[in-house]
Design brief:
Blueprint (H helix, E strand, L loop, with lengths): L21 H49 L6 H11 L3 E8 L2 E10 L2 E9 L9
Antiparallel strand pairs: 1-2, 2-3
Length: 130
């Protein structure tokens, strides 16, 4: 009975070139590359979402400080900014108030990366400052 007649696997005589089984290795390599690329893209998109969240937290902190500086809210402007930043899971790194204009910078650490944002809030230009 010849080797071709029975249903046994290919022997060394039928697999003479080095490409025997290369399809499996190639499929595994493509799968690994796809998983790696997907993980990288999802991580980057997650950081972009967090970056937008930090920018929103900076806006909220600056508005809280400006409202406090104008007397609309009782308290101290930078303490109000710190409270607003804490509610948004960020930390105030800089808070300055000149008249009714508040400038605030906040920071959040995600996966070992510091993401920061700054914002200013106050009355529109040309409006009397109280």
């Amino acid at each position: 009975m010849s080797a071709r007649g029975d249903n046994s696997k290919a022997g060394p005589a039928e697999c003479r070139n080095a490409e025997c089984g290369a399809g499996s290795i190639l499929a595994l390599a493509v799968l690994a590359a796809t998983v790696l690329l997907t993980t990288l893209i999802v991580t980057i998109l997650g950081l972009l979402v967090v970056s937008r969240s930090v920018a929103n937290a900076a806006d909220a902190a600056a508005l809280a400080a400006a409202d406090t500086a104008s007397g609309a809210i009782a308290g101290y402007p930078c303490e109000a900014a710190d409270a607003a930043a804490t509610l948004n899971e960020t930390a105030v790194t800089r808070c300055t108030v000149l008249g009714l204009i508040a400038s605030v910078s906040v920071r959040r650490r995600v996966h070992g990366i510091d993401i920061s944002a700054s914002a200013r809030a106050g009355p529109p230009p040309g409006e009397p400052s109280g």
